């Protein structure tokens, strides 16, 4: 399938401080034509028709009424996190747009960190490290 035939997905950017991670962008490119916010704002008339999805990464881009009104073919907003507290679901659904998220994506890493912190605390690993290797 040619890139032009792929559905457009709006993202803030690739890489940098707030953009989608490079490896995640590579995965998205297999299924979508990536359109950055800069590209969208630079050519709203043409790009707005191509965008069928928005990929929200670390609460960006911000989803507001103005953005939704400018995307007539938008079908879904995919949030790359557990919660959707930062999204106005009532407003978004009034545009006929669905919202998805990844509720279990960080369950295992969160449990791993929790266990590591409990073990480190119980065994006083931080204090032991400081005593053995004073800085």
From TrEMBL:
Where do the D-isomer specific 2-hydroxyacid dehydrogenase catalytic domain residues begin and end? 23-113
GO molecular function, a single term = NAD binding
Q: Which Pfam families match?
A: 2-Hacid_dh
The reply to whether Oxidoreductase figures as a keyword in the UniProt entry is yes
- What's in the keyword line of the UniProt record? Oxidoreductase
> InterPro entries per the record?
D-isomer_2-hydroxyacid_DH (IPR050223), D-isomer_2_OHA_DH_cat_dom (IPR006139)
Q: What GO terms fall under cellular component here?
A: cytosol
What protein does this entry describe? HPPR reductase
State the taxonomy lineage.
Eukaryota, Metazoa, Chordata, Craniata, Vertebrata
